[in-house]
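Re: the pair you flagged

First of the two:
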Amino acid sequence: MAITTSDFQSLDTVNATSRSDDPKFIIHRMILSDEFSQTPAEHAIMAWLVSLPSELDPAHAAKRLVNKYADDEACFRDDAVKTLNLLRQTAEFPYARLSLCRSNHRKRRRYNA
């Protein structure tokens, strides 16, 4: 079976924000395609994280992707639901929150030293 450009027509209609949130459509394919049903959700999340542009906060991208797919969650496969849950966990830790945790950790270490 040959792949044609019409196979990617739906991907072309995705706006620029969605493209930057999921540049290689890893999450999109994991959630909506049966071809990735054997792929562990953890692997998909790791591949997605590595594919993101360095200037994009993964937490913000994850939040937008969760909002995009959450309405249809009831009809998703178990691995797609797990992928969404991992995205929700990722969304809880934006750069600002992570830097706060790191700076608090450093302060504590100085006092305990």
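Second of the two:
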Amino acid sequence: MALALGCFGALAGCSAGNSGGGEPGIGTGDVAAVAGESPSAGPPVADEATYINALRNLDAGLVTDEKAALDNGYELCRGAEQGASTSDQVGGAIELFEVDGRTGQRIVAIATTNLCRAPA
């Protein structure tokens, strides 16, 4: 977990929400394919609108501040690019978004699918 805090601690104060119980599940339709370009992240191909919508479908509280939600998602991508394990990425999502482990796993999947650069 120390690596997760090191990779993701920079934006810990940018949490976008909190997950209560009973959050709806996400299906494959909620985590769409990557499309479009993101001006805020530079070269990565991203679909920020789909990312925000998928987070909103998971828990609307995660996107009360859309900029913070995007910043947190790109921070998860940077951790993955730096070699963070899936476990560390989930730990980062838990800290950045202030959610439980199950929701953290879903956030990592949503960010990876919609924001992160595909491996070369």
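The two ends are 27 Å apart (CA to CA).

-B.
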